[in-house]
Specification:
Oligomer: single chain
Largest sheet: 2 strands, antiparallel
Strand order of the largest sheet: 1-2
Structural class: mainly alpha
Shape: elongated
Number of strands: 2
Strand content: under 5%
Keywords: Coiled coil
Helix content: over 70%
Amino acid sequence: MAFENELLKYEYHDGINKLLKEVILTNFKYIQKNIDLQKKEISEQIVNLNNRLDSAREKYLQDRLDFDDYQIIKNESKQKIDNLEMALQNQKLSSKNTDIKVKLEQVLDILPHLSQLYIKGDNYTKSSILCPILAEKLEFQETAFRTPKLNSALAQIVLISNLLQSKKKRKNHS
């Protein structure tokens, strides 16, 4: 019962969903833009290193560069290219978060009604709700519970909701 009451803090007006969605999507687009810029920079560096390697090869074949210098340039360039290609591959793997709008809408549809979902849910549903909310394990003490840390994203939602409610109350009293 105490936890259900705690979940009531996460219920907010449906109008906040639009604001949350806009803020989260704006942040996601900004992050995605930075990832895209990093990919572009890495690709350009790979092209430049390949051009440097081709130039060194041409100079070596024309006897304008000795073998030792060519080997140094070749080894350095290949190692840098390998590292950059690995970084590029990691960027591609980390940016496979497509369809964020659909996932975000699903979450924002559920979040305002979290306490009702928890009350009506089976053990699996309750566990599915608890795990993302709590950053650490619940600590039970007789009939009460506490958690040392709350998930920071949900803490921010509660904070925003409380701030908007207080502004609304001040406006109505003015």
